[in-house]
């Protein structure tokens, strides 16, 4: 009887989906609830079967892609990627017509760059991979009926998955290193030799081809590079604006920069995307020291205006240029005059992040744009974002399958040198903007970063102050309270042993008086008890 009721509810939801497609539903909130209903009725862990997807109106997935912004909601983002993958891949092959119906590969890349879900990134990677394979078949680089070519493609895919290439690819799409294809080809060949020796020694495991076809491998990697170039390619009008600024053809640079602002505010996605690409190119030329002096001041004013704009979507586009700039700085050698200046490339990247983050956080409301800033902070301070040969992070992350969950589970390490370059004020401001209920993992990660900075820098601890952490102990979020309590006790034990000894004496005395032995094993209860007692003494209450 329960299953019959659920089937009827499923029919109601499918009818609502049909009506939404007929009337071209504009409310993202309504579509979000439809996806949630589908998720509750038929999906498992944010995944929908191909049969469920193809049972929906074929216009529903393109409609959701246009209206929904699910990059911050992990489960919904995972569901949307699953919807898209099952919608585009029919049987075992990617359908070009279906891909065009959702907006082409640019829609896939845009969602790929914005999602935080590890599994969603995996789904988008598969789509891009199949799109490139389709192009290689059309150009007769790979033969469909050739067992040898199929074996090569399966092996390359297995190696790329083993090194979590799907999680690293967004960095490549934002800015491709010069020797990316050669370096990764050499790495895959080295992995092939190792796996071939293991297969011959043990005689088991997945099949390994006797050799690696470097042509197929390099063409596959070259396909990702071409997708990146096409995604950020400027149209003729935007190329003209960029050339006028770089060559000084414009009599007054302010006029060209005003045209860039107009593109940002046009309300047209493609024009705004092109404007963001222009801003990135100009910022990259400024970093390389090749931007004309006449355009430097105008660029600084443009960046300030975009970072503090009242429209969150404008700030989001601008922050994407900052993220691309960080990728470019991380993967290229700094200019000669910058190597010895304030720590070289790392400090230059941190300065760009700190400047833009401070500007954005001054005007942002609630958690708007904070997710982008936190992603850039993690790109800067974690080894995972800069190292393709790192351990796999895709396994055992549960429902919250993000890089933040991986960090909290100890799967990612933090570079203290890189963390020291990030402004502590930026981290604290981001922490205040996030909600404990909605962004629990992000807040915990930020708190850990704040505590690491305070433990390694007395100046940062002085800037934050003990009162900041004492206030967090009174938070309504139990995990934040416990983490903060443990940090304060460890800090006192190492930095102020006399105060810690006095504190423990007071805790033991309180435990004896109240006959509460739980105080001796719970840092939160210990500090909470003492803080309440101190507060009562300050108020003159017995």
Structure description:
- This protein has 542 residues and is mainly alpha-helical.
- It contains 29 helices and 2 strands.
- It has helices at residues 2-22, 28-42, 50-54, 60-67, 74-88, 96-101, 105-114, 118-138, 147-162, 165-174, 180-202, 214-231, 236-247, 253-264, 269-288, 293-307, 312-331, 336-339, 345-363, 370-381, 403-408, 416-421, 424-433, 440-456, 458-464, 466-473, 478-495, 497-514, 523-539, and strands spanning 89-90, 93-94.
- The chain has a two-stranded antiparallel sheet.
- It is globular and about 80 Å long.
- The model is unreliable at 338-342, 384-391 and 535-542 (pLDDT under 50).
Give the gist of this structure.
The chain has 542 residues and is an all-alpha fold. The protein has helices spanning 2-22, 28-42, 50-54, 60-67, 74-88, 96-101, 105-114, 118-138, 147-162, 165-174, 180-202, 214-231, 236-247, 253-264, 269-288, 293-307, 312-331, 336-339, 345-363, 370-381, 403-408, 416-421, 424-433, 440-456, 458-464, 466-473, 478-495, 497-514, 523-539, and strands at residues 89-90, 93-94.
- List unreliable stretches of 5+ residues: 338-342, 384-391, 535-542
Tell me the distance between the termini.
Answer: 61 Å
Beta-strand proportion:
under 5%
Biggest sheet strand line-up: 1-2
Report the count of strand segments. 2
Biggest beta-sheet profile: 2 strands, antiparallel
Labels describing this entry:
disordered C terminus; 72% helix; mainly alpha; 542 residues; 29 helices
């Amino acid at each position: 009887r329960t299953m019959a009721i659920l089937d009827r509810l499923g029919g109601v939801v499918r009818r609502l989906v049909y009506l939404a497609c007929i009337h071209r539903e504009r409310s993202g909130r309504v579509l979000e609830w439809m996806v949630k209903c589908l998720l509750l009725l038929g999906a498992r862990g944010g995944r929908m079967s191909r049969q469920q997807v193809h049972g929906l109106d074929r216009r529903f997935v393109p409609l959701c892609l246009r209206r929904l912004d699910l990059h911050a909601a992990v489960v919904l983002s995972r569901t949307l990627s699953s919807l898209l993958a099952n919608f585009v891949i029919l049987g075992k092959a990617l359908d070009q017509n279906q891909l065009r119906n959702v907006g082409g590969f640019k829609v896939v890349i845009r969602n790929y760059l914005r999602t935080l879900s590890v599994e969603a990134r995996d789904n988008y990677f598969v789509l891009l991979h199949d799109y490139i394979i389709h192009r290689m078949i059309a150009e007769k680089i790979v033969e469909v009926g050739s067992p040898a070519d199929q074996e090569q493609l399966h092996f390359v895919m297995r190696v790329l998955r083993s090194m979590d290439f799907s999680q690293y690819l967004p960095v490549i799409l934002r800015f491709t290193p010069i020797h990316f294809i050669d370096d990764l080809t050499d790495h895959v060949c080295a992995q092939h030799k190792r796996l071939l020796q293991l297969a011959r020694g043990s005689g088991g495991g997945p099949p390994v081809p006797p050799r690696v076809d470097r042509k197929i491998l390099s063409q596959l990697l070259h396909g990702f590079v071409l997708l990146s170039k096409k995604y950020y390619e400027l149209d003729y009008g935007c190329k003209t604006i960029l050339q006028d600024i770089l060559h000084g053809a414009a009599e007054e640079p302010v006029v060209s920069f005003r045209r860039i602002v107009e593109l940002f505010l046009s309300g047209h996605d493609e024009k705004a995307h092109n404007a963001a690409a222009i801003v990135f190119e100009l910022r990259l030329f400024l970093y390389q020291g090749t931007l004309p002096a006449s355009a430097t001041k105008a660029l600084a004013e443009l960046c300030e205006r975009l970072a503090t704009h009242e429209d969150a979507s404008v700030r989001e586009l601008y922050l994407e240029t900052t993220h691309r700039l960080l990728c470019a700085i991380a993967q290229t050698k700094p200019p000669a005059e910058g190597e010895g200046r304030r720590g070289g490339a790392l400090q230059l990247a941190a300065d760009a992040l700190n400047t833009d983050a401070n500007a954005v956080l001054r005007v942002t409301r609630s958690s708007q744009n904070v997710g982008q800033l936190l992603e850039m902070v993690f790109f800067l301070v974690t080894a995972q974002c800069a190292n393709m040969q790192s351990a796999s992070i895709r396994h055992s992350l549960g429902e919250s399958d993000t890089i933040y969950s991986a960090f909290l589970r100890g799967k990612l390490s933090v570079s203290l040198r890189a963390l020291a370059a990030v402004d502590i004020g930026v981290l604290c401001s981001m922490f205040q903007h996030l909600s404990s209920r909605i962004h629990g993992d992000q807040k915990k990660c930020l708190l850990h970063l704040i505590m690491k900075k305070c433990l390694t820098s007395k100046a940062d601890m002085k800037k934050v102050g003990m009162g900041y952490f004492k206030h967090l102990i009174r938070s309504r979020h139990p995990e934040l309270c416990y983490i903060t309590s443990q940090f304060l006790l460890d800090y006192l034990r190492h930095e102020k042993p006399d105060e810690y000894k006095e504190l423990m004496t007071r805790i033991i005395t309180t435990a004896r008086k109240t006959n509460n032995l739980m105080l001796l094993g719970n840092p939160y209860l210990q500090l909470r008890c003492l803080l309440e007692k101190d507060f009562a003494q300050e108020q003159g209450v017995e």
